[in-house]
């Protein structure tokens, strides 16, 4: 009887350790998956060189994907990603609004500013995923 209890107790410890290891692995893989998405967004953002309707559509899509990804990361690890969610995302939104409200002659300047702010936010988020993993 005593051996059966010991075996059952050891199996419970083994199962608990296995669950913890799986949870840590899943979390790290989750960060790697999101980091990979962010790296692709970074590459796309770097390629944008001038304002036109096609590039506006591309940068809008990049912004939407970044916004979605930072929200996912914030929900996974609020302590690490909340400030990025609040500060960096707000800075990107401000730059996006400035582009939207700008006069035709200023669109190239505001487009490049929007691109740089978005790229900076993506870069900081990539670094945060590296630091947390």
Explain the overall architecture:
The chain contains four helices and no strands. The protein has 133 residues and is mainly α. α1 runs antiparallel to α4 (107-132) and α2 packs parallel to α4 (107-132). The relative contact order is 0.13.
Compressed to H and E, one letter per element, the order equals HHHH
What's the overall average pLDDT, rounded? 86
Over all CA atoms, what is the radius of gyration?
Answer: 21 Å
What oligomeric assembly is this protein in? single chain
Helix content: over 70%
Q: Between the first and last Cα atoms, what is the distance in angstroms?
A: 44 Å
Number of helices: 4
According to DSSP, the number of beta strands is 0
Query: Low-confidence parts, pLDDT < 50 over ≥5 residues?
Result: 19-26
Gross geometry: elongated
Portion in strands: under 5%
Query: Which structural class do you get from the secondary structure elements?
Result: mainly alpha
Largest sheet: none
């Amino acid at each position: 009887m005593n051996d059966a209890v010991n075996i059952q107790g050891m199996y419970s410890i083994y199962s608990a350790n296995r669950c913890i290891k799986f949870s840590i692995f899943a979390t790290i893989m989750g960060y790697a998956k999101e980091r990979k998405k962010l790296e692709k967004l970074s590459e796309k953002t770097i390629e944008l060189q001038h304002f036109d309707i096609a590039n506006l559509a591309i940068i809008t899509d990049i912004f939407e994907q970044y916004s979605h990804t930072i929200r996912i990361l914030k929900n996974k690890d609020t302590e690490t990603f909340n400030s990025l969610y609040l500060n960096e995302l707000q800075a990107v939104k401000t730059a996006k609004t400035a582009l939207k409200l700008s006069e035709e002659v200023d669109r190239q300047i505001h487009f490049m500013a929007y691109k740089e702010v978005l790229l900076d936010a993506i870069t900081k988020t990539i670094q945060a995923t590296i630091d947390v993993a």
